[in-house]
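Fresh eyes needed here. Have a critical look at this protein's tokenised backbone.
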Amino acid sequence: MIELFIAALALAQEPVVLEAEAQNPLIFSITHDGSQGELISGRVYISMTRGAVPPIGNPNPNNPEPFFGFDVQDWKAGEVLYIDETADANIAAPHQIGEGPWKAIAIFRTLNNTSRIAFEGGLYSKPAIITASPMDAGTVSMSLDIPIPAREWKEHKNLRLVQMKSELLSRELGREIFHDACVIVPDDYDPNRTESYPVMYWIGGYGSDHHGGRFMKSIFTSSDYDDQICRVVLNSQCYNGHHLFADSANNGSRLTAFMTEFLPALENTYNLGKSGEMRALSGHSDGGWAALWILIHYPEMFVGAWSLVPSPVHFKHFFTCDIYDDDANMYIDKEGNERPVARNGLTPSVWMRGLTAQDDVVKNGGIVDMYNWVFSPKSENGRAAHLFNHETGEVDKEIAKAWKAFDILQVLQSNRETLQSKLSGKINIVAAEYDTYYLEGGVLAMEQFFKEYDFDAHVFVKPDANHGSVFNVKMLRQIDEWFARTLNLENKQAKTMGPQPAP
């Protein structure tokens, strides 16, 4: 992960110990050295910790620490930017964060095509140590003069890096947008063989991208069919988070661009199957949602999809809130209790109010706010409209109504007569009994719908599992075996992994 690499770089830097100035509240004074351009535009963050080193990357929602953000436009090299009480903050203004000592790092995020804060073209500073009280610490000066390195692609005999400019998305969004993927080919891959290769398209969750192809290759190697199936690990990230492969008002025509531009290009370049029975989809978390979304819009183009612990598939279960309720509030339930958005086992660990405050500092690509960028219309200021008031938590009924177009269960219910036969036997959803993000509720509602209408779809609930534990070698091996059965592939390897339970 690039965050870990950059954190290691930061540790190698000697921190700057700052002397306190009496009776002066903490303010950050930031400059940049011009190494990424005399004028730069993007967002500047201050990341703070009481720990060993501040994270140079997206903040950890499980351990919220002071985090500040400020937009810059044509910011000139050497010009001083002040981060004070006017900056966006997740906890409090700089001078109100509590006693330290604190360590702080400044980060510059470019206007790029990923939700990662730390990315090529960005900058960060040497860490500063603040020993004085924030009420008395005065001005802390830092220089953004350390370039964030480019993410290297390491060559591998089975991995092919693919990048292609999207003419459609570049035109819609007014800047260059690219499709990215990692194609994983068998050891004896023959681009010229007469018979094309069956292909599994894999979509990862929030924060993951095609660079995960190397890890996925290590997992797929355990399959009995890794010598017969090609895999394509798709990049699903954009500046506003995971784009979910949905056509949206804010992220552009992501689904259309994939199906009309990228899919044909991949198939023509790598001898991949071009018929529905030769293509399959699978994904985890946000990627699991995307796999379902692609399938229900193009049911005849794929033999089926496996969706592992998908993000909310029914917005009556948007994490722990029913957004369609007349009095829906994302922060508090009807008893006045704070709504959690994540849990450790059965114990709530992250609260929606706190995560929203963090998202507001990240601004583009936050964990929850990314759904606004996919599901909401544009607001008057040109940004995605918020589903709920970030001060009060009150859900906007009109925005909730607009979200129905992206509610997978609602789409299936509204189009059941058309879709039921086309999707017969193609939907496979795996839920965790105790999903870390309370996502099992929507899946169980889908299961009830399938049973009520004798819909040929399969829902598996893994007992005692959480969001992460569902994603494992055994599960991906089972998905492969399902795909192989649909293709009537011969098991030529018979690798041993012990007894395989049902999903």
In short: The first helix runs from residue 2 to 12. Confidence is low (pLDDT under 50) at residues 1-22, 498-503. The two ends are 29 Å apart (CA to CA). The first strand starts at residue 16 and ends at 18.
